[in-house]
User: Fold this.
Amino acid sequence: MVETIDQIFVTVKHLLVGIVPVQCQRIVSASISAVGIIIFFASLFAITTVLERKGLGRIQNRYGPNRVGPFGLLQPLADGLKALIKEDIVPRAADKVVHFLAPLVLVAPVFLALAVVPLGRNMVAVDIDAGVLFFFAVGAATELSVFMAGWSSRNKYSLLGAMRAIGQMISYEVPLILSAVTVIMMAGSLSTVRIVEAQAGYSAGLPHWFVLTPWGLAGFILFMIAATAESNRSPFDLPEGESEIIAGYYIEYSGFKFALFFLGEYIGIFAVSGLAITLFLGGWHAPFSFLTWVPSYIWFFTKLLVLIAGFIWVRGTLPRLRMDQLMNFAWKFMLPMALINILTAGVWHFMPHGFARWIVCSLLVLGPYVTLGSVLMVNQKLGKRTYRYAD
Amino acid sequence: MLGEGIIQGMAETARNFVGSYVTKDRLTTVQYPEERLPQKEAARNFPFLVYDGNDPHAGLRCVACQICEKECPPQCIYITKSKDKKPDYIGKTQLYPAVFDIDTSVCMSCQICVEVCPFEAIKMDTEFELSTADRFGDLLQRKEQLAKPNEYYHQIHPTEASEVDARLAAEKAKAEAKAKADAEAKAKSAAEAKAKAAAAHLTAQPASAPAMPK
Assistant:
């Protein structure tokens, strides 16, 4: 029974694929997975927008949207309708083709990236040997879209936003991938399914997730910070920077194209959160051995919601960084920490099991964190801003 | 240490998030159509016409003197004088406005009409939910929509309305006293004149005789 519920989507898909002739089974199988992913994550996007607005409201002691439907839960419907019926304005001087393609170029790769994320036991659209590599490859395509949007709009703010986005995304791509490298080293595979399998099993009721090791925790935190920057979310929302450059690279987008950008951004967050779950949080595995009867996709979904809540929480708390702070943080803190973390993972791998490797690896992570942090704070590259004349 | 401030900030927002569900005082939002704050007494937006008693026509204080029409900076008032007259609150016969229109889409809520009105006939309203489907017809308010009872004025601006009532009552009393005094004086002078005339008649009777032949 438990097994049936756990595998219900897989079984249904197999039944559907079984109907069609053998020659088109592969394409039908892929299409069913694609449609499932698109519908599921698009509706999750709709729910997330309203939950985010409500959560941010509560953080600021407001109600948030509560007018459309019960508790304002139908707000995304109203937003979607509004986006659909709005006039689609293309600037006269814009490069029309590129301007039209940019939102599509954003949405397509983020959905592609979701294809390699295992959403549950046996629930991965394509299990390729270089899954993580594929993820980062298509994830990098969003940078192209952002620059296409900024360049084709023929607007100085757009271009500024696109420049910032490119600078930021390229800088944070490095720590993002380097922090993921530790997991690939330990799991010995680039396949997302193998990585999840490597985190199976429990000892003393606790799971063997990579996040529960010193290098895994550090890697997870680094990965999430870099993921926030990659998905242009607050506090790394310089490319948008409403108060500085109005809306950055999508300033000239209106109507449904704007909605597509919005969708792409959120799907990007889901994808990168999904990868973080796969790499560090044990994928679809239950957090405790006595909870393994709960279907695997529910665990994945719960972890995803927790990570999204974290994103919303951070967005409601932290102000936007300055450009120099952003760059200093990426190159002077994130990059060294990610490199040290790779070293720590190596030490962890080669030391004998026991209490000693916990202490050594914790020190290897904490020591550089404290020293690097205090050095950077003292040098005023990351800390509170001081003013020479005005105070 | 690096990240301390972030932890503190996150704790603060978490406190806000949870607190907004626990303590209602944190949520300062007034959910407008269902909840309303009481209006401030000095609130004002567009003018209305005050009438005494129950009949908007008979009790209307406005005498169509057109001072407000002339003073109105954006010229949003339009008045046509009546052909006939009706008694005002004192009892004096006065003209009344046959047409009194205010275009609320033009009005700038400056209250100058109220300042200049010698008859306390035009006052500022607090009604602000004036949205309509027709921006030309429905925002042009006619005399019938503008005329509102004195009780309504008391309701929206109690202090001011009481002052106005006291002033009007004093004026009326003064006018009545004056009328009474006038009437008495008139009666007195009439009586005197009568008496005088009678006396004159009596005394002058013989003197008038010689003039008769003329």
User: Anything to note?
Assistant: The CA atoms of residues 138 and 191 of chain B lie 60 Å apart. Chain B touches chain A at residues 1-3, 6, 9-10, 12-14, 16-17, 19-21, 26-29, 31 (CB under 8 Å). The mean pLDDT of chain B is 84.
